[in-house]
Amino acid sequence: MNIAIIGATGYGGVELIRMLAQHRGVKQIDVYSSSKHNTMLSDMYPHMKDLYNEILQPLEAADWSAYEVVFLSTPPGISADWSETIAKHTKVIDLSGDLRLKNSATYEDWYQRESAPETLLKEAVYGLTEWNRNEVAGTSLLSNPGCYPTAVLLGLLPLAGKAAIDPSNIIIDAKTGTTGAGRTPSAVTHFSEMDGNFKIYKVNEHKHTPEIEQALDMRTGENHPVTFSPHLVPMTRGILATMYVPLTSGTKSGHIEELFHQAYDKEPFVRVRREKAFPATKEVYGSNFCDIGWTVDERTSRLTVVSVIDNLVKGASGQAIQNMNVMLGADEKEGISQLPVYP
Amino acid sequence: MNIAIIGATGYGGVELIRMLAQHRGVKQIDVYSSSKHNTMLSDMYPHMKDLYNEILQPLEAADWSAYEVVFLSTPPGISADWSETIAKHTKVIDLSGDLRLKNSATYEDWYQRESAPETLLKEAVYGLTEWNRNEVAGTSLLSNPGCYPTAVLLGLLPLAGKAAIDPSNIIIDAKTGTTGAGRTPSAVTHFSEMDGNFKIYKVNEHKHTPEIEQALDMRTGENHPVTFSPHLVPMTRGILATMYVPLTSGTKSGHIEELFHQAYDKEPFVRVRREKAFPATKEVYGSNFCDIGWTVDERTSRLTVVSVIDNLVKGASGQAIQNMNVMLGADEKEGISQLPVYP
Amino acid sequence: MNIAIIGATGYGGVELIRMLAQHRGVKQIDVYSSSKHNTMLSDMYPHMKDLYNEILQPLEAADWSAYEVVFLSTPPGISADWSETIAKHTKVIDLSGDLRLKNSATYEDWYQRESAPETLLKEAVYGLTEWNRNEVAGTSLLSNPGCYPTAVLLGLLPLAGKAAIDPSNIIIDAKTGTTGAGRTPSAVTHFSEMDGNFKIYKVNEHKHTPEIEQALDMRTGENHPVTFSPHLVPMTRGILATMYVPLTSGTKSGHIEELFHQAYDKEPFVRVRREKAFPATKEVYGSNFCDIGWTVDERTSRLTVVSVIDNLVKGASGQAIQNMNVMLGADEKEGISQLPVYP
Amino acid sequence: MNIAIIGATGYGGVELIRMLAQHRGVKQIDVYSSSKHNTMLSDMYPHMKDLYNEILQPLEAADWSAYEVVFLSTPPGISADWSETIAKHTKVIDLSGDLRLKNSATYEDWYQRESAPETLLKEAVYGLTEWNRNEVAGTSLLSNPGCYPTAVLLGLLPLAGKAAIDPSNIIIDAKTGTTGAGRTPSAVTHFSEMDGNFKIYKVNEHKHTPEIEQALDMRTGENHPVTFSPHLVPMTRGILATMYVPLTSGTKSGHIEELFHQAYDKEPFVRVRREKAFPATKEVYGSNFCDIGWTVDERTSRLTVVSVIDNLVKGASGQAIQNMNVMLGADEKEGISQLPVYP
């Protein structure tokens, strides 16, 4: 199997290579960049030295039909064009946010830029694998979920549309490591400013908000805004989302437990803890797992759900490979079943 | 002025010394410990070498009337006895949680141990200085607030009891550095386990919950449970509390801004930011300041309040000295007006 | 292939499982502990939940002949007995330091405890794979190198015994992440004490000193003490050793470069950088690689060699599996060829 | 007393303000910048909000004679002009490296830029206060030492020129927190790249090398190159320098101890530990202290000296204020005697 990665110089691209290198179905991985050419990727990333020696190629020269899958790990705003072009020749997995929202007006509202054409938005399948496996299997154009929505939706979708909860007042307090902000140096992520520091950012304004709402509303058939507050943790990898969900009268622990187990008992990458046994981010470090903890508080009639992922793996490249496996009819776990790196 | 510190070997005690050493009214600081004697405190804390050379003394031998103030920086469960004894001779400031709750049943429920006598609970003044200055000025027995309640209440009290908000559905998502867990090594705070890791703990079970509720209920005249979720951040110092408050219909940004400014414009240690300008923990590192940010979300009719403190200073020893200054009629800022250490 | 791990509750044991789980020749991994029984290892390490469900077993009941290899990942002082017993039935790889030194007096001097019997010391093969491959292949009792000696010796052995350098004045300034100190909480590795802190420890007294000297002296045929200074870095994983080596008159860069390339051009796990391109610890994170940088300073006639490893992988469990592969005649890279996890 | 700071937007400038704000002799602190005007410094540094409200002013408009002292906290290459101009009107303390080396050819060699005029280099007094107090007291143009040289020289000067050591083979392995690299974001100090990572940089090429050699050679009357290797630690503040010094035959511990005590027993900011009791960087965090540990190794006839400072305080702004106090005949400790912030 031959694979191409466009935008391979970012953390998402590099993480794709790390895992594809272990995938037994993959023969060759080519890397493309719109800005850097004739450079070995390992010159930018010495951890790959001698292990991955491909040279960054310009997009213009590529023959996309030579690849079974092309990953787009590009910044927002440029994948619309490329995914349309490439999807004519082969399967495309887009890791940018450009094809996640079905409604172009919502995209333009939150992203503050022009949306991809509506036809493309319609065609693209949202690749939260556990909740959309059949559609993923049948598509040639996959839109990979955002890091926060992956953690949040895996925690909330078992509950959405169920009588046990009230979906109208959900609050999501999410925390991420700094790789979520990408590889470009900035004042916010300068080590001297970020070390020993905890910050909140983009309160009520983060682009992942409508992505979360779209998936929840699709299950409930209703329209409920969520409160979503992202925070930056002084660590490299990991997301922990703490979610507050009002319970309807009479809902008991046992019912919540059942909903989680119904949803995930057969899922290879979602691990549900017993009540009050909460996961920490390092317990999924470097892996494709999503761990979920939860507890019911009778004093406040509120359910707390906590989910953790590695933002670069299940929140990006790992899930993209999981989707690739499903799209190609391969073993869903191939290449991404490594244990977390702990401690 | 002569000062005694009981339980000086913990982080709170050491931080008291750091700031009292700069207090122009303080002549002598003596240190007492129930477990270590005949040891120089600086042998345990080499950062004090040559600067603070006092020897840890046993409590039994002390003449408490020789001190203007005695600080109790002891673990929960032992300050009841000592504060009663010492308060007969001089002013006492108790940094343990033993005297914070007015209701002994609530204490026993959340602390899972026997409460101090009700008479003592009644006598003790709760030292959230900004909101209780007059009582603080008149007492000989001060109970210093907990670290989380300080951050949370400074953020919420300007709103509590006001028509602008609905006090019945408040959610508090709080994050702390590891010094909040004290100086005793444990698996949770072992560096290899905590570095690069973000954790939630004691969900709905943290002792500071009833302390927060008591202060809010006192303002509203009602009884509302809050949801309180503490988290551990891989950093040494600092608390950031993110608080979600439902707004009543028609409440606008300007009204919230006014409430914060009314409350804090004359306060030397609380700094209110303009809307959407959120503080980060490092901006108060090593200082007695509490910085508050906030924003109104019209989509969800919800107010987000963010407050940050240094848990060892405004959340413990700094506020204790602030209270000492008020109790003694000194300049409230003396010894604790240093700028934050940044970066 | 069936594998047993004794002392599986430490970081070394857990790391063995992470990599053996990816080894295509391994069918079953059993775990033994002298202190914990009837507990699932994943109850202590939730990152393994659902992925590795074995129960810790007592050593007494084991049938060692049922295993192709038994790993001893035990604290110093107890592997002598067990390795002797087990080696009668199957191949043993000892990760403790008990069998590394050939001279029992040296052991007792530096370890301050009784040595294993001299016959056992003689029998045990020192498993620095790159420099001892033939002996490793033929042994049933392998002593796995220490973490520091692995980093140091891979950097120095290409030079030892060569005319290019003077072996009599070598200084090694080494830095490690905190997992080198193990899993037991202590004041030194308490997060609040270690975060934002850089420390030196055991100056001139570290047990790895004679291990380094033994290997160097074996190559030079001389006896030279080295200066070895270990330091603790506020990070979880990784060793960087900076080594200062006096050059003999006339030695040029090109000669040094040649020595490194001669030594390692065919080695799968050692990567030599070009002069002045120094590696950082994170570039080998989670992997079995050792990266080496170096530069010649003509002003001082001194060579600086820098080597980095992941202390838990190439410095412990990864190298142990590399040795296992050699001992069993399998592909040396099997199970341990993953790319580093970056960033 | 009125003070001006030029280049106040960097970490050095901000740290000057933190400490000058506590100096009882200082009435007013004005801030100047060549790039930013009409901005409040606290808009860039919210930790100063409400506490320091001055506006950044352009240099052209200044009346330097209105200030008792002007601090130049500017990047290399621009202080030569300004210090010459301003020194005509008042006392100047230059924190850049431009005036530290007496030999302009050496400057141009290591800094790769044109040197300040030799007359200015001659006039400027090197402000390592403990070793140059008399000259500091008499000058109007002070050149403040570099961060590394401060740590290194305070550790080595008690020994330089003494028969106890051989000055010809000194090796300095130094480690710094990231604030040493300043406030401008870069790939090297991007949090995701620096967190959990330990790096070496500028091996044998760091500009502070000739500054160290100049001071040592001045004491020995000889010319000896030193080996100097700087490293980056994943922490914000602090330098730890490990220094390896060959002993002459017959030198004993007691003699070394005596040399350190002779040098520093009367010094308020240098603390000498007893043999083998080594300091860690956090033990001087936020303070002007330099702590020194040491040990003699008879096996190798080598002395190890370890010194720690806070690079922004004793290694920059704190020492600059110490020099200011000496230049003005004030109490040397005024404004900078705070205890370290621990933990």
Automatic annotation (TrEMBL), chains A, B, C, D:
Chief localization: cytoplasm
Instruction: Report which superkingdom the organism of origin falls in.
Output: Bacteria
Q: Which UniProt keywords apply?
A: Amino-acid biosynthesis, Arginine biosynthesis, Cytoplasm, NADP, Oxidoreductase
Occurrences of domain Semialdehyde dehydrogenase NAD-binding (ranges): 2-139
Q: Which CDD domains does the protein's record reference?
A: AGPR_1_C, AGPR_1_N
Q: Which GO terms describe its cellular component?
A: cytoplasm
To which pathway does this protein belong? Amino-acid biosynthesis; L-arginine biosynthesis; N(2)-acetyl-L-ornithine from L-glutamate: step 3/4
The record's active-site residues are: C147
The family database entries (SUPFAM superfamilies) matched by this protein are listed as: Glyceraldehyde-3-phosphate dehydrogenase-like, C-terminal domain, NAD(P)-binding Rossmann-fold domains
Q: Where in the cell is it found?
A: Cytoplasm
Which reactions are catalysed by this chain? Answer: N-acetyl-L-glutamate 5-semialdehyde + phosphate + NADP(+) = N-acetyl-L-glutamyl 5-phosphate + NADPH + H(+)
Enzyme Commission number(s) from the entry? 1.2.1.38
What GO terms are given for molecular function? N-acetyl-gamma-glutamyl-phosphate reductase activity; NAD binding; NADP+ binding
Cross-referenced Pfam families, in alphabetical order?
Semialdhyde_dh, Semialdhyde_dhC_1
An example GO biological process term is: L-arginine biosynthetic process
Reported function: Catalyzes the NADPH-dependent reduction of N-acetyl-5-glutamyl phosphate to yield N-acetyl-L-glutamate 5-semialdehyde.
- What family does this belong to? Belongs to the NAGSA dehydrogenase family. Type 1 subfamily.
| Name recorded for this polypeptide | N-acetyl-gamma-glutamyl-phosphate reductase
Q: Which organism is it from?
A: Marinococcus halophilus
Lineage runs:
Bacteria, Bacillati, Bacillota, Bacilli, Bacillales
